[in-house]
């Protein structure tokens, strides 16, 4: 019973709280002129963050590879 309540709480957390901004974008902005641009702007923002983090990760990996400390046990 406890496990069922935990999964029910997780489902409620996502549907009732964490997805609210996306529901707002989907429902309220769908009929407005700028809704499409704002919705896609969120996707471009996520993509930009992903590219910046990937570039940082690759830079750090290159730094460790050049120092010879990569995969050192």
UniProtKB/TrEMBL annotation:
The chain crosses the membrane at residues 6-25, 37-58. It holds the Pfam family DUF6341. It comes from the Bacteria. Keywords: Membrane, Transmembrane, Transmembrane helix. The keyword Transmembrane applies. This is Uracil phosphoribosyltransferase.
């Amino acid at each position: 019973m406890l496990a069922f309540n935990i999964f029910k709480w997780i489902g409620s957390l996502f549907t009732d709280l964490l997805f609210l901004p996306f529901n707002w974008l989907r429902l309220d902005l769908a009929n407005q002129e700028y809704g499409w641009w704002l919705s896609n702007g969120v996707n471009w923002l996520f993509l930009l963050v992903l590219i910046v983090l990937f570039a940082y990760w690759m830079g750090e990996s290159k730094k460790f590879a050049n120092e010879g400390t990569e995969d050192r046990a």
